[in-house]
């Protein structure tokens, strides 16, 4: 296969973890005989420094032309001034908007060897294998009006939560289709006892569910869902929810695995790429971790597993995606731990050491 992949390293540890994933991509290309054409472009703080724009036209143009995009992370203290007109996050939000990435998929599956790294008791984590499908381009993060106002002589502020039936329907269908490939259960999370948008959400998801009689539908209020994620995480298969609820629940779910450094994500759009598959932006769920940037100790697994999702969802390379996931499992099982994963007395390895081990495992070189 020939494919065009844009790499957006971003800020902080972004360039370190994207370089790690690039080595794995090269290994997959060698092992399976593919040609992946890669281009690197700035985004976020690095792009603000380079040209004053967190999403330069060249970067956006390259992403619109690519089959898929792999991103590190954006942001950091250097660009944190709350009064600044341009901010690194605008690059990310702009990219999602321009590529029409309406759904964010975050799988959460704690590795058996790392159960002790989670704050939850290991018996609660047995069998946890869930996928959160978060609506990404609607809801309160995009609704208007969103502004400051003066009301009775004091400052006030307004945000707007807005959803159309079609926005809800497309993400609900993606959730049901995905559940069909898994354990055939969808949990729809809303706040229908209070919010009108949630009542439309519940009604629309219920209607879509009728087209998927083989998939069980459960409905939960978001406050109850936050609790059930901790008390019965293994009972979930696919969770579908609105933008803000998903933002909060996915961070809560990430804690189940012990380290954010391990978790991948995929943001998918409707427009097909050159292979007739969704063009997507794939990124680890963590941020730019400025506290450890430049030290060569970042955990690259979240980005490498994001690459596996890219191979699966945007290139249809299921065998290659599974090979990368299996390589990560083997390397963790054989004891490799970056500092964020290592137990207190356990030695930690560097980013390039664990990456090399994963590369060798993908290419079948027995190093352990
Ligand atoms: P963070 O995820 O960057 O870091 C939180 C903690 O986890 C830190 O102690 C960090 O060292 C550790 N950590 C994160 N990823 C790691 C990895 N791969 N390996 C080892 N340790 C890891 O969150 P934060 O500190 O709240 O945010 C830092 C910056 O990142 C901020 O500017 C924030 O806006 C930005 N951010 C960006 C994104 C994104 O690009 N999608 C997401 C979240 C935060």
Tell me what the structure shows.
The chain is an alpha/beta fold and 368 residues long. The chain has two domains: 1-102 and 265-368, Isopropylmalate Dehydrogenase (3-Layer(aba) Sandwich), CATH 3.40.718.10; 119-257, Isopropylmalate Dehydrogenase (3-Layer(aba) Sandwich). The protein contains twelve helices and twelve strands. It has helices at 14-32, 45-51, 57-65, 88-98, 122-125, 165-180, 196-209, 222-231, 243-255, 301-313, 318-333, 351-362; strands spanning 2-10, 35-40, 68-73, 101-108, 130-135, 143-151, 154-160, 185-190, 216-221, 238-241, 264-272, 278-284. The strands form two sheets. Strands 2-1-3-12-11-4-5-10-8-9 form a ten-stranded mixed sheet, with helices on both faces. A two-stranded antiparallel ribbon has the order 6-7. α6 (165-180) crosses α7, α10 runs antiparallel to α11 (318-333) and α11 packs across α12 (351-362). The longest helix has 19 residues, at 14-32. The chain is globular. It starts with a strand and ends in a 6-residue tail after the last helix. The structure holds nicotinamide-adenine-dinucleotide. The site of nicotinamide-adenine-dinucleotide has 21 residues, from loops.
């Amino acid at each position: 296969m020939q494919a065009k992949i844009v790499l957006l390293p971003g800020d902080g540890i972004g360039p370190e973890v994207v370089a790690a994933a690039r080595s794995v991509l090269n290994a997959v290309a060698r092992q399976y005989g593919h040609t992946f054409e890669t281009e690197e472009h700035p985004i976020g703080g690095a792009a603000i420094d380079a040209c004053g724009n967190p999403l330069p036209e060249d970067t956006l143009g390259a992403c619109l032309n690519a089959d898929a995009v792999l991103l590190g992370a954006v942001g950091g203290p250097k660009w944190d001034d709350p009064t600044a007109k341009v901010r690194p996050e605008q690059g990310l939000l702009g990219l999602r908007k321009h590529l029409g990435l309406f759904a964010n998929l975050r799988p959460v599956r704690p590795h058996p060897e790392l159960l002790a790294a989670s704050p939850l008791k290991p018996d609660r984590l047995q069998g946890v294998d869930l996928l959160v499908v978060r609506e990404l381009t609607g809801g309160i993060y995009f609704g208007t009006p969103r502004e400051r106002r003066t009301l009775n002589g004091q400052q006030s502020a307004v945000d707007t939560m807005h959803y159309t039936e079609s926005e809800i329907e497309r993400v609900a269908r993606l959730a049901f289709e995905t559940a069909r490939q898994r354990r055939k259960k969808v949990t729809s999370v809303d706040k229908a006892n209070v919010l009108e948008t949630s009542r439309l959400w519940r009604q629309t998801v219920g209607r879509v569910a009728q087209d998927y009689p083989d998939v069980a539908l459960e409905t939960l209020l978001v406050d109850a869902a936050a609790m059930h994620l901790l008390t019965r995480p293994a009972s979930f298969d696919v969770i579908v929810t609105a933008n803000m609820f998903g933002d909060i629940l996915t961070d809560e779910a990430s804690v189940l695995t012990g380290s954010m450094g391990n978790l991948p994500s995929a943001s998918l759009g409707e427009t097909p790429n050159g292979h007739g598959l969704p063009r997507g932006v794939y990124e680890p769920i963590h941020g730019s971790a400025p506290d450890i940037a430049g030290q060569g100790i970042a955990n690259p697994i979240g980005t490498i597993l994001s690459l596996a999702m890219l191979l699966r969802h945007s290139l249809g390379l299921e065998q290659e995606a599974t090979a990368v996931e299996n390589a990560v499992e083997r390397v963790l099982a054989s004891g490799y731990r970056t500092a964020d994963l290592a137990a207190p007395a356990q030695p930690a390895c560097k980013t390039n050491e664990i990456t090399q081990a994963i590369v060798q495992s993908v290419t079948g070189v027995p190093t352990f």
